[in-house]
Design goal:
single chain, about 290 residues, Rossmann fold, six-stranded parallel beta sheet, three-stranded parallel beta sheet, 11 helices, about 15% strand, binds guanine
């Protein structure tokens, strides 16, 4: 049976450091770290994530501002809000929750966030720094940064000689995850929906990272014995499909059967999720320290 990583506990330790860093900054310079979170529309899952982020920001001692905009918000209005937040010196981090409603173009919005306030690490300046191996001066996307904490904890800083497979190629996760693994000297494969014989590709992985958004897609016979398996999926499976009374959150990995083959595995919930929020807080306090000089 694999060791199950306790994401909540590891996130709590990151949060402790963030609280100290925010308190120190305030004591030394009078600057309160500020995070603005923007959500457009009514998607209940997005609201739950955003509320958790705003709440954690408060717990960290930040100024925490949430802008909840209606579904019919225009591109111009959202662009103006981002510009206002860019110009507000009390705000060090700006997060626009994705996905945006269909009538809005997310890319111009993301690229309009100042790179130094882009705590999601999605601006091309931050993505470019990561892609060119600068891990120090930009901001790195929170979920991959959190997943790397688990990888380092299991394998150390240097992944030389290890094969890593990332399933998924999004800008928010798959691409930056692959870059981080590569920067740590892993041999990295990015697999996706067009990959041929995905189970065989996954079986080559010492470190297997799944971010596809398909409930329990990764099966036991996709997992190399002794591998580290990181599950980035959060899928709400409705009750009727499970033959149970309540809907349930499951990952992209069939946890029970894969835990019998892997040596280390992350659960859903309680794995990558809490760590993502912790890394968002870490990015925000990094941004406020940089802004304060
Ligand atoms: N939607 C799901 N995850 C994320 C995230 O990490 N950042 C943003 N902005 N939107 C998301």
């Amino acid at each position: 049976m694999a060791t199950v990583i306790d994401g909540k506990q590891m996130a709590a330790s990151v949060i402790d450091s963030v609280k100290s860093a925010a308190a120190n900054l305030e004591a030394d310079t009078g600057v309160t770290t500020g995070l603005a979170v923007v959500i457009v529309g009514d998607d209940p899952a997005s609201h739950a994530y955003v509320n958790a982020k705003s709440k954690m920001a408060k717990e960290c001692g930040f100024k925490s501002v949430q802008h909840t905009l209606p579904e019919d918000t225009t591109q111009e209005h959202l662009t103006e809000l981002v510009a206002t937040l860019n110009n507000d010196p009390s705000i060090h981090g700006i997060l626009v929750q994705l996905p945006l409603p269909k009538h809005l173009k997310s890319e111009p919005i993301i690229q309009s966030i100042l790179p130094e306030k882009d705590v999601d690490g999605l601006h091309i300046v931050n993505a470019g720094k990561l892609a060119t191996g600068d891990l120090d001066t930009g901001l790195i996307s929170c979920t991959p940064a959190g997943a790397m904490v688990f990888v380092r904890r299991t394998h150390g800083e240097d992944l030389s000689g290890l094969n890593a497979v990332v399933i998924g190629r999004s800008n928010l996760f798959g691409k930056p995850m692959a870059q981080l693994l590569l920067a740590a000297n892993a041999t990295v494969t990015t697999a996706h929906s067009r990959t041929r014989d995905l189970p065989a590709v996954c079986r080559s992985a010492d470190i297997l990272v799944a971010a596809v958004g398909r409930p329990e897609m990764v099966k036991a016979d996709w997992v190399k014995p002794g591998a580290t398996v990181i599950d980035v999926g959060i899928n709400r499976v409705p009750a009727p499909e499970r033959g149970e009374g309540k809907s349930k959150l499951v990952g992209d990995v069939a946890f029970g059967e894969c835990a019998e083959i892997a040596s280390t595995i992350t659960p859903v919930p309680g794995g990558v999720g809490p760590m993502t929020i912790a890394m968002l807080m870490a990015n925000t306090v990094i941004a406020s320290h940089r802004a304060a000089g």
